[in-house]
Amino acid sequence: MNPAGSSKPQAQVATAGLSPEAARAWSAILEARRLVRAGHLPVPGATLASDSPPPTALAVSGGFIVWTASAGWEPIPAAQPAAEPANQAEAQAEAQAEVRALLELYLPLLPPQRTATLTLAHLGQSLDGFIATTRGESRYITGPANIRHLHCLRALADAVLVGAETVAADDPRLTTRLVPGDNPVRVILDPRRRLPQERQVFQDGAAPTLLVCAAGPGTPRNWGQAEVVTVAATAEGRLRLDALVAELHRRGLRRLFVEGGGLTVSRFLAAGLLDRLHLAVAPLVTGEGRRGLSLPASPALAECMRPGCRVFRMGADILFDCEVRAGAGVGTSAGAEPARVIPERRRDHGGATPDLFRIY
Ligand SMILES: NC(=O)c1ccc[n+]([C@@H]2O[C@H](COP(=O)([O-])OP(=O)(O)OC[C@H]3O[C@@H](n4cnc5c(N)ncnc54)[C@H](OP(=O)(O)O)[C@@H]3O)[C@@H](O)[C@H]2O)c1
């Protein structure tokens, strides 16, 4: 299988809704990702895949993103431009703040080494902690800026993973459609192969797809157009997620995006397999519903997980970008980085707020 998932003609990809500066920054982020994956960047002790010198700086509005072997891609502001009229300067500052937020959010998802791994999960939840209503409706808990963010995460990942219940409830395509970028390989966790083969991910051929189930007699090779992959199960019949992750890494799928639902994300978190958790909180109250995170209780406050996090504004939603790598920020706030709020900047769009990519 092509580990990179599938590409599609960029002309077919919607770019409406992005400011020109944000669209250019997104292109630079995609190029940065491509260079890391292709092994075209100097890393300590490694031989380059090509003889031609790689670009180590990519231009974005207000500066560059610059590669160093030790830190990977980092945003570097340009020298101050000559003074401009006040209204132009304000517009430019707005655009650059939007670009900076994009870089702050996405560059940490491009680890410096070609072979580095990263597993990130995302959930969009209500104020009272639910990711869907009692009858499973989740479209849409969060607003368009967060939905676009999901598509960015798909574009940056090698593989997107979801639990069987999400495919049963939503019949999602799990492709990158709202921003330019490749489709990731799709990985569906369906231990008992209970999903009908008619689901879109098994039929549309939009990207390579894996159906992951427990090993057993009579396991078919395919499920619709998907390849069936078996992994070991625990004594309780759950798929061994560490074995699954190892199998995906073996296939060259190193940047993993766990897109839901709550049970699947919770199991990855409980198993210590996540590096980052994105929790988007929407101003919505469902009263009851499908739980987001659901973990064993920690009766002692001092033992609760208190991850270091950054906070981004996405339209009306708030995104918590949490570092949950095993050992990071567990316990009291001692040792945990305090939440860093990237403040909202006011914009006047004459009443028609282009919400997409309104990330601060
Ligand atoms: N707001 C959001 O961000 C968001 C995102 C995605 C989905 N959703 C919504 O969330 C709901 C689904 O979430 P959910 O928490 O109910 O379920 P889910 O996580 O989508 O799927 C859970 C199922 O996946 C399988 N699975 C996952 N990990 C496994 C493991 N380690 N071993 C074995 N099987 C494993 C199991 O299938 P079996 O039951 O066959 O054992 C399990 O019951 C839907 O309503 C969907 O619309 C919301």
Summarize the structure.
By secondary structure, the chain is of the alpha/beta class.
Overview of this structure, please?
It is a single chain. This protein is 23% helix and 22% strand. With 360 residues, the chain is an alpha/beta fold. The protein has a domain at 10-109. An eleven-stranded mixed beta sheet has the order 9-10-8-7-6-11-4-12-15-14-16, with helices on both faces. Strands 1-2-3 form a three-stranded antiparallel beta sheet, with helices on one face. A two-stranded antiparallel sheet has the order 5-13. The protein starts with 19 loop residues before the first helix and ends in a 19-residue tail after the last strand. The structure holds NADP nicotinamide-adenine-dinucleotide phosphate. NADP nicotinamide-adenine-dinucleotide phosphate binds at residues 123-124, 131-132, 136, 138, 141, 162-166, 169-170, 189-192, 194, 238-239, 241, 259-264, 267, 290.
- Record field, number of beta strands: 16
Q: Name the poorly predicted regions.
A: 9-14, 327-360
Rg over alpha carbons: 21 Å
Q: Give me the number of helical elements.
A: 7
Assign a percent range to the helix content: 10-25%
Q: Give the strand order of the largest sheet, numbering strands 1, 2, ... along the chain.
A: 9-10-8-7-6-11-4-12-15-14-16
How large a portion of the residues is in β-strands, by DSSP E?
Answer: 15-25%
Distance between the termini: 38 Å
Keywords:
alpha/beta, eleven-stranded mixed sheet, binds NADP nicotinamide-adenine-dinucleotide phosphate, three-stranded antiparallel sheet, globular, 7 helices, 360 residues, disordered C terminus
